[in-house]
Amino acid sequence: MRKGLLRHGLCLLLGLVLAFGLISCGGTAPGRKTEETWLGNDSATFRPDGGEDEFYAMQAGMSDDGDEVYAFLRLDLGADFLAGEITDARLFFKPMGGAPSPKTLRIAMVTGFWNSYFSSYDEAKALIDEKSAATVSLRGEPGGWLSLPLTDFVKAWLGGAAKNNGLALFGETAGELYRFASSFIDEGSEETRPYVKLSAAVGDRPLDYGKYPYAEAVPPGEGQSGGNCISYSLRDLNPILIENFGGGPDEMKRIYEEAEGAVSGSGDDALAEYFAELIAEYVRANAEGLRISQIRRIEDFDSKIDPAKEYRIVMRFGVNLPDEDVVDFTDPHSYDCHFRAQLNDGRWAQKFPTEASQIVPCSGPGISPGAFPWDSDYSPTPKTANYYTSKAIYFAVTKEGDELTRHRGETRDRAIEP
Question: Distance between CA atoms of 227 and 415, rounded to whole angstroms?
């Protein structure tokens, strides 16, 4: 919600380019079987000797001393399917440089954020989820590719049982080390990045989780805007910034420090409550322009609403703690809140200021949006991963009509026409 903030502000829903107003998502017809491919978007090798990582290759196996060598891989998950609609998922990767191909590998989920440049071997090893670790058999594929089964991991991610922090490949026999193409390639070169291919069939989804289906919102262009997370959650095209709420840095500092002094780690929750009140007041003060007749707090993500009139939104707050653990509330880059909106099929959607909207992967009926911290970008980095850590605060919103509003009138943040 801050001005000029590139991928770190407000939010809600995925999309391409669209005309003025909302459109429903085409989607896949219920019962239709289809296949989808998800690319790996980051990878790294973590070796016990601390050796330099290869940019275009990742290694997995075991050192001569019997220490695991980990290939970490993070995937861009899609949001078209729910966990129960997945019938099969396999991870494909390509051996490099004439290296021998393994018959089996160990795989495990990763429990936290990692970075291919800054994470150490010990840090990476501590993130291995041993409970999920399994030995899997590899299968040869056309073109020299290999694949392994990943259905259980994909279902766990999409079903909200685990946050998608990626997975680790490693070995179980000392001295066996394998090289595969990483998630990085030169422009114009052969496509060798790891990917997941899944098969799924969309089921019959109840559409009674809220009033509206998914809608696409544009990223900003010169002199134009598709809104930010708050405005998108309220189905409005004029970006709404933290500055618009009237909260002051002195009051924020007082609330945060009092909460932290009472219970360490509770400052984010206290500020989330503070901003929840300010946001509700802003909506009520601009009710006519927003065409919102009511906004009310509800207890949880599945609290009862009237889906013929209402839909749910959720907010979380986060602070950017520097090394000295002191937040400068006079700097708008030191804190932020983010919003998501629930769709009528139970999934959630979000938008960042400089991006098109998206349906949130791993969201759906029965999955709490507050189960895991939120990232402040579609592709997490050390600065944006797990940024929003406060409790989740929920509202039910009653909005009139199906089109996006412009509650501040025809301004420079108009919609991009097709």
Answer: 9
Does residue 323 lie in a domain region?
A: yes
Range of the domain at 79: 33-201
Question: Which sign does the torsion angle of CA 13, 18, 23, 29 carry?
Answer: negative
Please check whether residues 362 and 240 belong to one and the same domain. yes
Residues in a beta bridge with 298: 394
Domain assignment present for 253: yes
CB 358 within 8 A of CB 302: no
Query: Measuring CA to CA, which residue among 117, 111, 112 is closest to residue 133?
Result: 111
Record the tokens describing residue 331, joined without a space: 């700097």
**Whole-Å CA distances, 268 to 169, 195, 281, 352, 388:** 36, 37, 20, 20, 9
What pTM value is reported for the model?
A: 0.86
Whether 253 and 371 have beta carbons less than 8 Å apart is answered as: no
Mean per-residue pLDDT of the chain: 85
Give the pLDDT confidence of 46-87 residue by residue, as tens digits: 999 876 567 788 999 998 889 999 999 999 899 999 999 999
Cα 70 to Cα 47, 60, 168, 391: the distances in Å are 7, 5, 6, 34
Place of tokens 């790294």: 44
CB atoms within 10 A of CB 385: 18
Side by side, which strands form the sheet with 292-298?
292-298, 393-399, 310-319, 335-342, 348-350, 358-359
Unique residue bearing structure tokens 């605060």: 393
Q: For 213-230, what is each residue's pLDDT tens digit?
A: 998 877 665 445 568 999
